[in-house]
Design brief:
The protein is α/β, with parallel strands linked by helices and 371 residues long. It is 41% helix and 15% strand. The structure holds 3-isopropylmalic acid and magnesium ion (MG).
């Protein structure tokens, strides 16, 4: 029997290409695992009305962790139009399967390292090495939303004096997406970030939100960060506003080590950080819970490159490295990261985004040669 059981979810578009690249490397490293294919993605929405079928959830429950390629997500109305005719008018509503997975398995922490590997011509600076800790189940992406606004919801919200003016617009003209955050959720993401900073001897932790306007939710996460920070007296906590932080990321990104952010702000700032170290082709990520984890690169499914083996597999390979770390296979993680770093430094084999012309799989094979 293999040591690990890994759910294998290529998902949509280039997810397939980069997962194939991952497999080349995993097999070359003789990683002792059984891979169990699991259905997820756009096709299953169109033909079954569910992008995350029950059978997939069952597979995830029977595995140690999951590796995930990429997902196509579309807004509600567009999604409804692409449903098979027989499935329309059944009240099916599209909800991103990766967001659902994060909630279903309580994968509360989305860890997104952004490191400038030497020799990458796309580096904004060569001395950036930071990690975003994005709260992954609450906040703006919690999924509590309405359009139009139900009367009962309006009534309930009307205990707030600022609610009155919305009635005049007509409830049928009002959309509401909530940002609900818990003290537990805030404390947990702050704890993960500080623990990481301590273990990896990082210089500082920055909590980024917008408490001057989002006073209640922003205030909650800021207070949680301050509370948790007391247990780590050697690590300074910096508190910043998301808008200003975006500007500082362009001015002095090298000063930051660890970020804590709410779900949506973390989504945004992690793409910004990725852009500073080569773009989404280099951005790896892990959705981590107490017992389970789903490893997926930050990038999307890039439908226009589907099946062309054009996209950069480094994000996926660094995501595999994160999986090794989480499983406690530290030596494998180091070997893989070392090989990735060598290929980047040599800059002889690479995909179009770094100015070279190799395929996704050729890059993976070059990584294997450097292991
Ligand atoms: C990400 C993506 C997802 C998100 C989308 C595809 C739902 O942007 O993982 O960052 O917003 O979380
Ligand atoms: Mg994103």
């Amino acid at each position: 029997m293999a040591k690990y059981r890994i759910a294998w979810m290529p998902g949509d578009g280039v997810g397939n290409d980069v997962m194939e690249a991952a497999r080349i490397v995993l097999d070359a490293m003789k990683f002792d695992a059984e891979y169990i294919p699991a259905d997820i993605g756009w096709d299953f929405w169109c033909h079954e009305g569910d992008p995350l079928p029950e059978r997939t959830i069952k597979i995830l429950k029977e595995t140690d962790c999951a590796l995930f390629g990429a997902i196509t997500s579309k807004p509600r109305d567009e999604a409804a139009e692409e449903l098979d005719p027989g499935l329309r008018d059944k009240g099916l509503v599209y909800f991103s399967p990766i967001v659902r997975l994060r909630q279903l398995f309580n994968l509360h922490t989305n860890m997104r390292p952004c490191k400038a590997y030497p020799g990458n011509p796309l580096n904004y600076r060569d001395d950036i090495d930071l990690v975003v800790f994005r709260e992954n189940t609450e906040g703006m992406y919690g999924g509590v939303e309405w359009f139009p606004l139900p009367e009962s919801v309006f009534e309930a919200l009307s205990i707030h004096p600022k609610m009155g003016k919305w009635k005049e617009k007509g409830l049928e003209n009002i959309a509401l997406s909530t940002r609900i955050m818990s003290k537990q959720g805030c404390e947990s993401i702050c704890r993960q970030a500080f623990e990481f900073a301590k273990t990896h001897k990082r210089r500082n932790v920055t909590i980024v939100d917008k408490p001057n306007v989002l006073r209640e939710t922003g205030g909650l996460i800021m207070r949680a960060a301050r509370e948790v920070a007391k247990d780590y007296p050697d690590i300074p906590l910096w508190e910043t506003n998301i808008d200003a932080q975006c500007m500082w990321m362009i001015k002095n990104p090298q000063d930051y080590d660890v970020f804590i952010a709410e779900n949506m702000f973390g989504d945004i700032i992690s793409d910004l950080c990725a852009g500073l170290v080569g773009g989404l082709g280099f951005a790896c990520a892990a959705n981590i819970g107490d017992e389970y984890a789903v490893f997926e690169p930050t990038h999307g499914s890039a439908p226009k490159y589907n099946g062309m083996y054009k996209v950069n597999p480094m994000a996926m390979l660094l995501t595999v490295k994160m999986m090794f770390d989480w499983l406690g296979e530290t030596d494998m993680a180091k070997r893989l990261e070392g090989a990735v770093a060598k290929v980047i430094a040599e800059h002889k084999v690479g995909t179009y985004d770094v100015g070279l012309s190799n395929t996704t799989l050729e890059v993976a094979e070059e990584v294997v040669r450097k292991l």
